[in-house]
Automatic annotation (TrEMBL):
<feature type="domain" description="Reverse transcriptase">
    <location>
        <begin position="1"/>
        <end position="143"/>
    </location>
</feature>
<dbReference type="InterPro" id="IPR043502">
    <property type="entry name" value="DNA/RNA_pol_sf"/>
</dbReference>
<protein>
    <recommendedName>
        <fullName>Reverse transcriptase domain-containing protein</fullName>
    </recommendedName>
</protein>
<dbReference type="InterPro" id="IPR000477">
    <property type="entry name" value="RT_dom"/>
</dbReference>
<dbReference type="InterPro" id="IPR050951">
    <property type="entry name" value="Retrovirus_Pol_polyprotein"/>
</dbReference>
<dbReference type="InterPro" id="IPR043128">
    <property type="entry name" value="Rev_trsase/Diguanyl_cyclase"/>
</dbReference>
<dbReference type="GO" id="GO:0071897">
    <property type="term" value="P:DNA biosynthetic process"/>
</dbReference>
<dbReference type="Pfam" id="PF00078">
    <property type="entry name" value="RVT_1"/>
</dbReference>
Length: 175
């Protein structure tokens, strides 16, 4: 049998970033081993069964590499954070952004997000969370009160492109 690949609508990144108007500080939150926090149903566990020369087993929790893991994880995050969408926080998979206009605003928004995550029994990796920064990296971009700009890794990747040396390479690169 074959697993049907499910697709969950991903947020439009441009719309996502346009909602940052007026933000002066940013909090980014990252879930600790995001997929591994999601228990598998009994029927899903059976589909992860494996055999080694000395034993057999099956996964109890969602792992990277499962065909529909991104779909199921996106559905979970939508269910947990949807009431906060657009007004309090935005997210892409396990990366959560909380833009704020002031410290009291940040604390209020952060409390709402943390309560939602706690209610779903989802935990954060504190070493990858940044609270109330004037500039943060998020989804490959640098966000600040001044706006959005490409992150350093994106800039380095473009600079590392090989220079075209003939008209065919120029056409392939630019048209």
């Amino acid at each position: 049998s074959q697993t049907l690949r499910k697709v969950f609508p991903t947020p439009n990144l441009d719309e996502h970033l346009e909602r940052l108007q007026g933000a002066k500080m940013f909090t980014t939150l990252d879930l600790a081993s995001g997929y591994l926090q999601v228990p598998l149903s009994e029927s899903a566990k059976e589909k992860t069964a494996f055999i080694t020369p000395s034993e057999s087993g099956q996964f109890e929790r969602m792992v990277f590499g499962l065909v529909n893991a991104p779909y199921e994880f996106s559905r979970l995050m939508q269910r947990v954070l949807h009431p906060l969408k657009d007004k309090v926080a935005m997210w892409y998979l396990d990366d959560i952004l909380v833009p704020s206009t002031s410290i009291p605003d940040m604390l209020n928004r952060l409390q709402q997000v943390l309560e939602a995550l706690k209610g779903a029994k989802l935990t954060l990796k504190l070493s990858k969370c940044y609270f109330g920064y004037p500039e943060v990296a998020y989804l490959g971009f640098m966000l600040s009160e001044k706006g959005v700009r490409p992150g350093d890794q994106k800039i380095m990747a473009v600079k590392a492109f090989p220079k075209p040396v003939n008209k065919h390479e120029v056409r392939r690169c630019c048209f």
